[in-house]
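hi! just following up on the protien thing from before. the input was this:
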Amino acid sequence: MSERYTEVDEIIAYIHRHIYEPLPLARLASHVAYSPYHFTRIFKERMGLSPLYYVSSLRLQKAKDLLMQTNLSIREIGLEIGQQSLGTFTTRFTERVGVTPSQFRNSTPQAENQLLALQKLQAWQSSLPIIGEEGIVRGVIQSETPFEGIVLVGLFPKPIPEGVPLYGTLLASLGEFCFTGVKPGTYYLMATSVAWGMQAIDFLLPMNTLRTRSRAPIRVEANAVVPHQEVSLYPPKLDDPPILISLPLLMNIFLAGEGGRESVRLR
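and the predicted 3d structure came back as:
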């Protein structure tokens, strides 16, 4: 993804300010005086997502917030973010968050227990394979600020952390990660963090968690070595895509039987 097209920053801020209003493509494009075609092209080049897909992602993030912070019914929350059909809202939320709206709303006790369980397991280790082996994506995660806790790392099919990642793992600390047996394809590396002692609401709604992502897609090809990935956790930035995937869901998958392995094929 490119750091060009700084006007996209203004559009993102505009979307945040008007997220509960209708935001057709023509309205977004006119805000920066571009044609819809040209606007879509530069937005996708900068963000990796189409403008309307980004809007729908941000609205699902708002739905997560409303589920945890209000007593609105699920139907009312769907209407708040522009979904007239309860069934459509439930389906899209489940596909992109990984759990149903009802499950997400009731997940606080489980999330607290999962973090405590992971803290007890924080000595888990992973071995690293020989450099040069095919089907391996490996690298290191550092941090711009001091951090102690777990790091959730995934390879996603789109440049947004939604749905269960194709490959995912948890790290007990900053440092090296490794995915083995990765099938040929194009992936986006994305990671976020959960600090020890964090409240469940803070990672159920990960607005402020440290995160990182690869700025370019990672291509895994037969008979080719994937370049070593070096990324650093940083505080949220304006152009970061919302973290839609339920972090407790990933923690639960890890605790359910995959803890201690180098990487997990999650679907």
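The first strand starts at residue 137 and ends at 143.
Confidence is low (pLDDT under 50) at residues 259-267.
cheers
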